[in-house]
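Internal ticket - ligand job 316, L-homoserine:
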Amino acid sequence: VLRACGVRVPCSTSNLGSGFDCIGLAFDRYLDAGYDPAGEDGQPLQLRRAGTLAGIDIDMDDDILVAAFRAELLRRGVEQVSGTLLVTSTIPIGRGLGSSGAAVVAGIALAAAACGSTLDPDAALASAVRLEGHPDNAAPALFGGLVTIAYAEHGVPLARRLPLSDRVGFAFAAPDQEVSTQRARTVLPQHVPHSAAVRNLGRVASLLYGLAHADPAAIGIGFSDELHVPYRLPLITGAASAIKAAQDAGAWGVTISGSGSGIVAACPTGAETRVVDAMIAAFSAAGAGGDGFVAHADAHGVQPRSFSTLRNALRA
Ligand code: HSE
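stdout (structure tokens):
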């Protein structure tokens, strides 16, 4: 018997420059999802979307959250599901903040909660990777904070939390343009020079030191990259000038958030608003519109939420 439940899942920025496909950081914008089993048995599952998800016009059967919810229920032996799913989000879509990773984690966590089980984050990560393929968004959505992901033998993902100094501030801005991860991956080269791969290894080590110790030089090097950023920048109108504007406004490191179109900057705490404003102004001057916010690390990852709180919030 399934029960009413809800979950809250943070968004995440991934890569942070040199940590391509292996570093992610949860931020404080959230996807909330709730499930109510009430309804007649045999009736199909209903879905209500709100917030940034309201404009999504894809069939429920193609919705990644619904697919993850159903797959996880099936894994737990539940073949048929009726009732209602409510989903709402403050995560911008197609801007490099892991909205699909958050949706997959929400579907998996909601299925566990509907079955009355506590979520096993390691098993949930393995399921999320099977369903969506991007552990660097799913892992921070599950664990919160700054996370490293690597694959053990047989492709099993291993995620671990890393230290993050509270003296590092974060700023995010994006143009009025979506970039799909699929498209942003097709522009990547099949091969890179060995020397470029080696330079990137040094950068990732520097990135992690810099974020742990709020070291401006180490963050600056860590946010630079040769594996994906140079190939993706031309896809994003105004990105190069937004990066320059953030640096001029005092950012220590600036790069593409995930696969774009957003740009994420690390800066001294207190400078975040100035950096956000500089990036928005640059996007706008490039004719790309632009919106942004000061981002804070989410330290918790996926959390339970009561279904009735969510239903009432959606009514308001
Ligand atoms: N690391 C992935 C990429 C994340 O950059 O393609 C996609 O959100």
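Auto-summary: The chain is about 40% helix and 25% strand. The radius of gyration is 19 Å.
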